[in-house]
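User: Continuing from earlier, I have the next pair ready.

Assistant: Great, send them over.

User: Here they are, in order.

Assistant: Folding the first of the pair now:
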Amino acid sequence: MTNIDLQDIISLRQEIHQYPEVSGEEKETADRIKKFLSQFNPDQIISEIGGHGLIAQWKGEEEGPSVTIRAELDGLPIQEISDLEYKSTKQNTGHLCGHDGHMMMVAALAKILAKEKPKKGKVNLLFQPAEETGQGAEAMLNDSKFEDIQHEYIFALHNLPGYPKGEIILKKETFASASKGIIIELDGKTSHAAEPENGISPAQAVAEIIQQIKVLPDTINELEDFSLVTIVHAKIGERAFGTTPGQAVVMATLRAYKDKDLITLDNTARKICEEISKKHNLSCDIADTEVFSSTINSPDCVELIENAASKNGFETQYLEAPFRWSEDFGLFSQAYKGAMFGLGSGEETPSLHNPDYDFPDDIMDHGIKMFDGILKQLVY
């Protein structure tokens, strides 16, 4: 497999780590990536796809498949806690999921493609905005500029703390769960706390909604596989001891291995909320947020990933069950033939989304060689 100098790759990763941008605001990050890619003579770079997304493309001389390798641009709205020289310079914003590392493993392929263009087909290096909110993939897929580029295969990885560094984590079919957030707003009537009978309080409705929707995975017979409901927030009225509350909000995350089970969970939760609200003379409004489809891996693509790991001499591990977390890559892997794999980032590495997490640069080479190994099987 191709070896390249990683010094500038690691330096840019650490620079990007210093200047993270949250979902939808990744302009400077995309500009840094575009400037780096431009050095390596892509046939074209298309910017501002579905927001700040971009694609750099290298074309082969012969007909062949169009292969896309995807990374994410966005950071998280979390305050970083570290003593790193390159720690985040932005308040309450940090690259605490490893997207900075993912970006550079994909961007590093430009060095390889500049030295050895694909013999056939096309290679697309894709940098997606707004992964953390579940909005970026859909925005890119719906952009006409994205439709103008062929995508027959699509691959991505995610670094995984808790697994040995450099180990490749594989799963056929469902790799990661579908999920969505629901925001349940209840509206009644406020009154003086001394005269609750003159108001319509949502307090009892909130208690019943929480009790009933959190146990849905145990009470719905139609569910085919794992599902989970997590209550993440609830608020009744204000901090006013003289007031009987008239408004309330409950927020929950619904999660399932299968998209159809997520739909069943969602429909049932809505029905319960509406029935309870009606019983207590409340109006009820339910909104969705951060919607993710399940990430489905093509068995053929998993085989290509396993071959790349074998040729590089990397250890592999097959998952027994999908991950419970969700990934915006799911929309891509359902639209095209593709797969996501995991890259172990250390058994002692802090968990993803933790304030002290930092992408370990010593696994950078593993990710680059894996993607290069996949491309070698398809376009060379």
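And the other member of the pair:
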Amino acid sequence: MFGGVERMLETLAPAIAGVAPVGSTFALCFGGAVAHRLRAAGATVHVLGAVHARQLSEIRQARRALAGVLQPEAWDAVLVHSAWSQAIFGPTILNSRVPLVRWLHAPQPGPRVLEFWARRSRPALVLCNSQYTADNGRAQIAGVPHVVQYPPSVMRARRPDVRVKVRGSLATPLDTTVVVLAARLEAGKGHSLLIEALAGLPDRSWEAWIVGGAQHADEQTYLDGLRALAGAAGLSGRIRFLGQRTDVAELFEAADVYCQPNVAPDSFGLSFIEALAAGLPVVTTRLGAAEEIVDSTCGTLVPAGSAPALTAALARLIERADERRTLSAGARARARKFCDVPASLFQLAGQLAHLQTRVPALI
């Protein structure tokens, strides 16, 4: 699986971050796309072996593998990114006497048994990916210091030729206003609401790109439903399902508006940051951490679940190129708050500094 957390880890890889004081090493149970992309970014990746929670032999083998990684070097901290990894590997980490840190990416608890199992390995610190997560997730890991650490993201220079190249490859005219949504294929991201809102737009020169491929059977069923919904709305020719892409940054540069109308709270929203960094005005719903990222200088927040409000916001941006340009400039300025990788890493080092006196390292 590859989503926002994995994209954040890719940013922490040395070849992308490229600065001290944080060095990143990664340990994964499963290889696949995540391991490939981390290695391509210059990171050291240890594959511990497949683990299924009901297979005790797999758990023991993976724990031994992690212990072997931890023993030769003096690590300053081990970060886990889910209740699952905290439950499986927490005892090994604590036995190694390396501080355990949980990076909390959502305030909603996972399966009760898994959360109970994870709580048996108490972390020294909880990093929260947003204030929303910090405010709503304290009960999940009680009695442990919680601090907000926004996931780092990279600010890329804009390339004038990308728009022409990408649109040419998709046979999209340069004067067509493109609305893009790039997210995991799950209902909470608001794909259906976007299609409903697009169906209410006036018949002007616009097109929508939905980026994201099915990574398992449930997502394929969901995608098939979205295609059917677009067809029923008479929008099959205007809504393009582009599938899984490795050139999302280029697609953003070639688009005009980013719209991800969440119908469930998003605990952060790395796609919002990447859209802003590409100069895209962001239209989303007033849910979760969106209000920490999007303000009136760079986009529009609409009431959750309101297709008419979403239609009105999109219609205004499609019809008013001057407003798009103003918000585009604001988007780039807003993104700099989240896309200063050196500043993010120094902040992260500061969060971890009290755990050890040495320069922090990650695994």
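Worth noting for the second one:
The chain has two domains: 4-153+340-362, 160-335. The first helix runs from residue 4 to 12.
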